[in-house]
Amino acid sequence: MISIAALASVFDLQGRLLSPQRFEKSSGVNMASAASTSEAETIRSEKTSPTTRKTPVVEGQRSGAGGNVVPRGADPRLRPPMPAGRSVPLLICSIGNPGPYLNTLHSAGHTVLSKVAEAIRAPPFRKDRALGNGLVSNATSPHSGSQWVLWQSTSLMNVSGAGLKAAYNSWSKSLPEGEAKLVVIHDELEKPLGAVSVKVKQGASAKGHNGLKSILASMGGKPFVRIGIGIGRPISREPNDVAEYVLRKMTPEQRMKVEGCVEEVIKKLNDLESG
């Protein structure tokens, strides 16, 4: 039952509010005469309740709370493209030497990647034949939750390129073009012990680093990012003296310095996955 005072709130069959004039016209009720009757006089309304209607998404509007903007000219029914600044999955590889040479300065990349795995609580490393026979830990980024595959070469430093290429090819084939980023962590003679350097620009020289030479030759121009872990260099530049220096086991002090850069390396990896 609807009172005379509420007549202005009556809906038509399409769910639209009726003005008093439109109500008179559609119902035949004279508002002036109806107003003079008692407030107790009522009329029945057999109108149906308005139904909820969805407002269509139009160009330039958001598809919902927190939704993506539908680009102009695009079919609103289609899923909009992902934002340009999204995080990308990383294949993070370390190169060095196995066996008795694992804890040497030349294998500082392995040392750092092992500590990265500990810091982000990654699963234990396991040998994976499908990924170049390397040691693999499938982790997630502590920053974005995107995929980080940690990979340690099991080859000698000077021939590490073939295994790394096999790992990259196997890993990247399931990812969309341009969404796979390769990062190589290696020792760096030209930087002070424990210093971290990042090289994103392609075409840079290997500077005599045989592991990087092997990767450059194997990857055939495929881009990758280098993260160098400083190990310092001996005073002598004689090749034999340099070889003896890099293949020497790290002292506890040297190891502490190398492991001390892990937090900075993780920060660099966070930056790399975002841009």
TrEMBL record:
Name of this protein: peptidyl-tRNA hydrolase
Annotated stretches, region: Disordered: 26-82
SUPFAM superfamilies found in the cross-reference section: Peptidyl-tRNA hydrolase-like
EC number: 3.1.1.29
First-tier enzyme category under EC: hydrolase
tRNA-binding keyword on record: yes
Gene3D superfamilies per UniProt: Peptidyl-tRNA hydrolase (3.40.50.1470)
Superkingdom to which the source organism belongs: Eukaryota
Family: Belongs to the PTH family.
InterPro entries recorded: Pept_tRNA_hydro, Pept_tRNA_hydro_CS, Pept_tRNA_hydro_sf
Listed transmembrane segments: none
Molecular function as annotated in GO: peptidyl-tRNA hydrolase activity; tRNA binding
Keyword set, alphabetical order: Hydrolase, RNA-binding, tRNA-binding
